[in-house]
Every structure is written in C-alpha cells, then in structure tokens.
Specification:
Layout (H helix, E strand, L loop, with lengths): L1 H4 L2 H4 L22 H15 L6 H7 L15 E2 L17 E2 L8 H20 L12 H4 L4 H17 L10 H7 L2 E7 L2 E7 L5 E8 L2 E7 L2 E9 L6 E5 L2 E2 L3 E2 L5 E9 L17 E7 L4 E8 L16 H10 L1 E2 L24 E3 L6
Parallel strand pairs: 11-15
Antiparallel strand pairs: 1-2, 3-4, 4-7, 5-6, 7-11, 8-9, 8-12, 10-11, 12-13, 13-14
Helix pairs in contact: 3-4
Length: 362
Amino acid sequence: TYGQHHPPLSYLFSGRFIGPSSPAPRVDEARDDRLHELETSFAELDRLGPEVAPWTVDRLLRHLLTDLTGNTHRAEFCIDKLFSPDGERGRLGLLELRGFEMPPHPEMALAQALLVRTIVARCWERPYRHRPTRWGTSLHDRFLLPYFVETDIVDVADDLASHGYDFDPSWIGPFLEFRFPRHGTTTVAGVTLEVRGAIEPWHVLGEEATGSGMARYVDSSVERIQLRAEGVVDGRHVVTCNGREVPLVPTAVAGTVVAGIRFKAWAPPSGLHPTLPIDSPLTFDVIDRWTGRSLGGCRYHVVHPGGRSYETFPVNAVEAESRRQRRFEPMGHTPGRPGVLDDRAQHHPEYPATLDLRRIGG
C-alpha cells in the first residue's frame, strides 16, 4: 500500500520499459478491478488475525500480484519465493522488487538500498494501514514527469522523518538527473523554459509473423518530455509546442508551471498509428496575448539537428551529455502573428497535464 500511494517508487528506480505490459507492472496498472480484490484480501488478513499461517499470505496475494497474463514472476512485488506451500524453493523468505533496476554507480545503489530498508523499518514499527488510492489516468498523466516525481519523493522523506528516520531527499538527486536528463534551458522575455526528459510507457503490440515465427514487438515510437516554465504571467503568456497550446499546470512556486508533451519521435516498421507523421523537431513559442506575437522560443530535436548518425557509443557521461545538448537549440520560433486560440477546451479531460501531439484537438 505504501508503494501504491507513492508511484515514484515504481518509476524512478525502474528501467525504460514500464507500464501495464512491462516486466514489473504496478498492481493498479493491469486491471481496473485489481484494487477492489486487493482490499478484499487485506480485509481477510485482518479477519484471520496474527495467528494466520505463513503460507496464507501467498494464497491470498499470489493471484493479484501478476501481470496481464497471470504471470506471478512479472509483477512489481513478486512473492514466488516468499513462503509458498507448493515446495521448498518457494519458501526462501524473499520478496523481489522487480521494479528496481541496478543503478549505474555503487553509491546510488547504496542510497537505493537505504531507502528500501528505511521504508521497511518504518512500516515494521507502525504498519501502514490505509485504503489503496484510485489514481486513474493521473498515474500516467502526472507521475511520469520529473516535477511530480521529485515532489512525491520529498513527501516520502517527510513521512520517514516523522517516524524518526532522517532521510535526506537530496540523496535521490542523482536518480532524478539520471532518469530525467535536462535537454536544455533558455530565457525568453523574462520567461525561462526548461526541457527535460520524462517517462513514457511502452506497450506490447499484437502478434505479427516474422521470418522465424510469431513475434510481439514493443512500441517505442512515442516519447515524452517535460516543459517547465518560470516567470509566466497568467493571462498574458501562452506557451505553444508546434503551434498547439501547452496545458501548463501550476506548481508550488508562483509563476512556475509544468506540463508533459507526448509526441511521435520515430517511425518504426511496426508500431501504433503508422499513418501519423513524426512530430520532431518540437518548436516551443512563448506567445504574448497582449501583442499577439511570439516573443521567442527554442527547438528540441530527437536526433542530431544536422542528421548526423553516431557510429560509436559515447566514451563517458560528458560526451553523452554533449550529444544530448546538441539536440537542443535556444532559438527558433514562429515568426509573425501565430494567432493562437484558447485550446484549453480542446485539451483531453483525462490527461489535463499532458499535451499529446498525435491527437487533433486534445
């Protein structure tokens, strides 16, 4: 329940492949009725009391902690080796956190292990007894963006501190920079725009015939970024992406807003919506409603702006960051009078913080 209440614990430390069809889906990502059945199992555990047999936990939860196909090993919390009555190999007392990926640095691994141990100690001393939260579409609308991930991690640190564990949220800073790299920053007429990478769920496609048999490809053609704007004057400034108004969401800081942008970055041979064109490059404009003109902007490219194709991997993190920064241009805006209308009514009501450039009118 603690992990279900804090989605960043599922996404910040995971690999690139997340979502309902990933190797470690959340319990509330696969089926809509899963939380209802989970509450029933929790109530049964409370009814049986502290004298319940150890293998009862396996019987009550093993059919809920699965993926879409019922695979018990492909779950965020895998209890195959916890205490199963089926055999000795299933009674090792192990709980696998399959949503955690090995970090690229040993000190990051220590911070990750420390966070898990601290949460276990907190829940051991005072069990976390609350109802699961129905996040709905806000699970992927907000918690795939770095701002909301960082905010929730701070909430986790505050909760641990209130129970006597002084966990500094700055220790998770390297994970945020690693998971959400900064592509570039520019300032236009007092408005600062920052473009960062975000997380995008990949979905398994339907079966297709190949030369060696049947295959199920993963659609990685869609990407997501976060746009953060500071110094925005409400009623005057509008930020657009490729001519579409971005649904900016207020933050805890006055004048600072964030939004997610989904777009088709690639055109693989097999993928969702094959007739849609590629949206790259993304051109951002800061529109002044008072004058009806673009004050300036920036441009983000999925690949090298000159079409360069690298033949080797970067030798270190510095070269990788320089390659990424070449794809960001602190210039390039829509000249003249863009004539931007108020697109707020066209934004999708299920995803109020995300602009999907693949859709027309939302």
